[in-house]
């Protein structure tokens, strides 16, 4: 079976493991985009750490959870967000400004919406 959205599958497996009360979640297959996304999540404290396991196939990632993750998901289809529209999208999608982040894929890399605003770049 073909996987259409690898990032969505990864976030769903992390979310489901957290809801079941597990301390670890397993993501397969791994990719560079998932690793960069998990780095952003780790920077903000939503996960503790992750380990990339090379199994000479598609790879696996073991994510160590800390219980702070309430909900995570992918907005599909992915929309292009201009610099001026970041504020509109955050008010449209996010329930609160204090502890919720939009993660954008930009030409400068994968970053949250606050860092994209500081670097003055848009993305998807």
Summarize the structure.
The protein has 124 residues and is α+β, with helices and mostly antiparallel strands. The chain is built from four helices and five strands; from the N terminus they run αβαββαββα. The protein has helices spanning 6-19, 32-43, 86-93, 113-119, and strands spanning 24-27, 47-53, 60-65, 103-106, 109-112.
Q: Can you walk through the features of this model?
A:
With 124 residues, this protein is of the alpha+beta class. It has four helices and five strands, in the order H-E-H-E-E-H-E-E-H. Strands 1-3-2 form a three-stranded antiparallel beta sheet, with helices on one face. The chain has a two-stranded antiparallel sheet with strand order 4-5. A hairpin with a 2-residue loop joins strand 4 and strand 5. The relative contact order is 0.16.
Task: Summarize the helices and strands and which ones pair or pack.
Blueprint: H1 6-19, E1 24-27, H2 32-43, E2 47-53, E3 60-65, H3 86-93, E4 103-106, E5 109-112, H4 113-119
Antiparallel strand pairs: 1-3, 2-3, 4-5
- Widest sheet, order of strands: 1-3-2
- What share of the residues lie within helices? 25-40%
Give the overall average pLDDT. 91
How many strands appear in the DSSP assignment?
5
The helix/strand class is: alpha+beta
Straight-line distance between termini: 27 Å
Rg of Cα set: 15 Å
The count of helical stretches stands at 4
% residues in beta strands: 15-25%
Characterize the main sheet: 3 strands, antiparallel
Order of helices and strands: HEHEEHEEH
What is the general shape? globular
Residue runs with pLDDT of under 50 for 5 or more positions? none
